[in-house]
Amino acid sequence: GFDELIEAQPDAIFKLNALYNQDEDPSKVNMSIGAYRDNNGKPWILPVVKKASEIVEKDPNYNHEYMPIAGFGQFTKAAAEILFKPNDHLLKEDRICSIQSVSGTGANFSAARFIAEQYAQKNGAAVYISNPTWPVHRTLWESVNVKVETYPYWDAKNRRFDFEGTMDVMKSAPEGSIFLLHACAHNPTGIDPTREQWKSMFEALLARKHLVVFDIAYQGFASGDLDRDSWALNEFAKSNKDFFVCQSFAKNMGLYGERTGCLHYVAKNSTVKRKMQSVLCLIQRNTISNPPAYGARIAAAILGNPELFEQWKEDLRTMSSRINEMRSHLRDSLVALKTPGTWDHITDQIGMFSFTGLTPAQVQFCQEKYHLYFSANGRISMAGLNSSNVDHVAKAFDHAVRS
Ligand code: LMR
């Protein structure tokens, strides 16, 4: 059986991570996968997560029972509260349907599957993703048989957001298309629209009655401020149009492997919310049955305790400010080396990644000659940099650009 099977390509991001692990050169640098590292290059258990996990495990009610199909209620409610704080009337009006997911990927999957079955299969709508985007966005929507189109997000020549190109597509796409938007800290470019640009985009999306799905994987991690990073989706929420939000706690709580996330749907009213809840629960039951418990318990402990919540905000600032220091250091080193080109984009960008502008050949050069591991599109995970390796990385980039 299965003799005709076509072998699938390994995932490019995870493959780089594996190649890094195999490399025995002491100067190797891992800038592949988007996961935070401390200044010693080590994974960081957030101090607040350490405290919360002790509280969770000491709880006399702690056990390994199943979660409800929709997930841990204390977690999903608190997750909605931090997301929609400026629009808390939506919670009071019981218009937010929140289903715990297998992190952001699971939220994206459940949203895509629901929209495929209940919307795209009926009206033929395509989903528009940014070019470029996190690669799984494309393959995941393709896996539920929704046609994938793109909007031209990255203006490579000027190394900026292609606002005009994006607006053109939003205006010309067939009415009722699906638009997937990165709510903050765009992956892979690190470039977000300005608030004025967001407002114009929302006008176009609303005028064309497009269905919007926000993906938010970096709330608080990007700027160090939870409310600033959720500004765009809260601005959109003012319109009263229904929409989806895929929320991950992988990066902002460092709960990568615990798969902690939530899918939210903001409904027109509580009746639609209730119906949506029932249908999303059916999808959940048929895919994962019920979601993972441990990370949700930790997140709920943090979000539900004012003292831990404050400490979490402190931990978020620790991560985002270290990344910003590395941005400045890398740019300054390249400027000091007089590396051809301009490098301000490194400090203008935000979040986990910098889109360096290096070509695939230059990326290859850096890997072969300097043992740097990062995506062929020139994306570096900023968290891979630290005070011991940033000058080495700058030297490698300088050499690559001059070669
Ligand atoms: C990334 O883009 O590196 C992260 O979001 C991790 C992943 O799952 O790809």
UniProtKB/TrEMBL annotation:
Pfam families recorded: Aminotran_1_2
Tagged with keyword Transferase: yes
Cofactor or coenzyme needed: pyridoxal 5'-phosphate
Record field: catalytic activity: L-aspartate + 2-oxoglutarate = oxaloacetate + L-glutamate
Residue stretches making up the Aminotransferase class I/classII large domain: 27-397
GO molecular-function terms, A-Z: L-aspartate:2-oxoglutarate aminotransferase activity; pyridoxal phosphate binding
A single Gene Ontology CC term: cytosol
EC number in record: 2.6.1.1
Gene Ontology terms: biological process: aspartate biosynthetic process
Listed CDD domains: AAT_like (cd00609)
Keyword Transferase: yes
Keywords assigned: Aminotransferase, Pyridoxal phosphate, Transferase
Annotated family: Belongs to the class-I pyridoxal-phosphate-dependent aminotransferase family.
PANTHER family the record matches: ASPARTATE AMINOTRANSFERASE, GLUTAMATE OXALOACETATE TRANSAMINASE 1, ISOFORM B
UniProt subunit comment: Homodimer.
Name of this chain's protein: aspartate transaminase
Species annotation: Schizosaccharomyces osmophilus
Taxonomy of the source species: Eukaryota, Fungi, Dikarya, Ascomycota, Taphrinomycotina
